[in-house]
C-alpha cells in the first residue's frame, strides 16, 4: 500500500473522505459506530450543562456552598469555553482521532473527581476538568460532518448534532431531578465517568484513519506537533476569557479583572497578527464582515437561549412550586423544539449552498419575541400549557437559527475557508454557553439578592442574610418557607426571572441587527476574499 505524501494546510480535510481516498470509505457499520459514540459523548457533555439546574440545591446543602452555587455551572462552562477556541487548531495538529480520545479521557477524569469530591474546592476542580474535556467535542463533531458528509446532507447532519445537544441538555435536568432525591447527586457523576472513559477510544477506533494519524504520538512527529502549538496565543486568550467570565459571574462584580482581561485580549490579537505561525484564531478571517458579524450574532442569540435553558427550571421550582423532577421536565418541550427546528430546516429547506438572509432575520425576530413572551408569562398563575408552548417555540426558532446562520455564512465565504469558518462559528456558540451561564447567572443572582433584601425591608421583616444566602443557591428552599418570607422569595424569583428574560430578548434583537449586516451576496468570486484566501494559504 502506498501512502499519500501530502502536506496538510488549513483547508485540507482533517479526515479523508470517500471521494478523496477510496480506502477510507465509511461503511454503514463504521458510520453507526461514529454516530453512536459521538452522540453518547455529546449526551454526557450536554447533561453536565443542565444537570445543576435541578441538582444544585442538594449539592449546595451537602457541601455547605449556597453562596457559591452559581459556580457549579459557571466553573464547567468557563473551562469549556476557554478550551473551545483551541480545539479546532489542536484537532488539526494532532488529528481529530487523537484529540477526541484525549478529550474523552479528560472528561472521564473530571467526572471521577466531581463524584468523589469531599469539599467545594475539589468539586469545582472536577467541574473545571470536566469542562476542559468537553471543550473540543462540539468542534470535532462539526469537523466530522464537514469531512464525512456530502454538501447536500450537511444541513441534515448538523441538525442531528443540534438535536443531540438539546436532548442532552433536556435529559440532564430531568434525570437530575428524578434521581438526586433517590440515589444522591454523586451517583449522577459516577455513572457518567466510566462511560466517557470507554467512548473516547471507541470513537477513535470507528473514525477513518488518515496519513497524519500514523505515528502522530511517537518520536519526532510528536515533537513537531508540540512545536506547532501557539502557546503564547493559547495562554493569553484562555486567561482573558477566564478573567472576564469569572468577574461577570460573581454576585458582586470585581472590577480589576475586566481591564486586565481586555489588555490580555489585545495582547492575544497582537500575537496572532504578527508572530504566530499557526494562530489559534486566524485574526485576518475576523476582518471578513460576514464571518465576524455571524459569530457575534450567534454569541448574542445563544446567550439568550442559554438563559432560558438555565433558568426556566429554577423559575418552575421557586415560583410555581414544582418538584425538582417536574422542573426538569420543563426543558423537554423547549429542547424538542430546538431539535425539531434544526432538523426541519435541514431536511425541508437547506438543500443547497444558497443565501438564507431573509430566513435568518425573520427567525431572529421571532426568537426575540418568544423570549420576551416568556418574561411576561413567568408568573405563579400563568397557564402552564401556554408557558410550555412558548418554550417550545423559543427552542424551535433557536434550533432553526443554528442551521440557517451556519448555512448562510458558508454561502458568503469561499469553500476553501469553510473548515475555519465553521470552527469560528462553533467557538462563538460555545462561548455563548459560558457567557450565558456566567453573565446571566451573575445578573440573575445580583437582581435576586437585591430584590430579596428590598422585599424583606418593605414588609417590615428583619434582615436575614443567612436566608438570603440560602435562597441564592437553593430555589427549592422557597416552598419550605411560610408567611411573608415565602411571599417575598416568590416575588423576588419572579422579578429576577422576568428581568433576565427581558435582557435576553433585547440581546436577541441586537443580534438581529448584527445578522442583518452580514449581507446576502456570496463572496466566492469577490476579489478581496480571493486575496484573503491566498493570504491564508501563504
UniProtKB/TrEMBL annotation:
Alphabetical keyword list = Membrane, Transmembrane, Transmembrane helix
Gene3D superfamilies membership? MFS general substrate transporter like domains
* Record carries keyword Cell division: no
Give membrane topology per the record. Multi-pass membrane protein
List, for all copies, the residue spans of the domain called Major facilitator superfamily (MFS) profile. 34-494
Q: Which domain of life is it from?
A: Eukaryota
Compartments it resides in: Membrane
Q: Which PROSITE patterns match?
A: MFS
Write one Gene Ontology MF term. Answer: basic amino acid transmembrane transporter activity
- InterPro entries per UniProt: MFS, MFS_dom, MFS_trans_sf
Region called Disordered, residue ranges: 1-25
- Compositional bias per record (Polar residues), positions renumbered to this chain: 1-14
Which GO CC annotations does the UniProt entry carry?
A: fungal-type vacuole membrane
What sections of the protein cross the membrane?
32-53, 65-86, 98-125, 131-149, 156-183, 189-208, 229-249, 255-271, 291-315, 327-348, 355-378, 384-406, 418-447, 467-488, 500-520
Task: State the protein's name.
Answer: Major facilitator superfamily (MFS) profile domain-containing protein
Organism, by scientific name, is Penicillium cinerascens
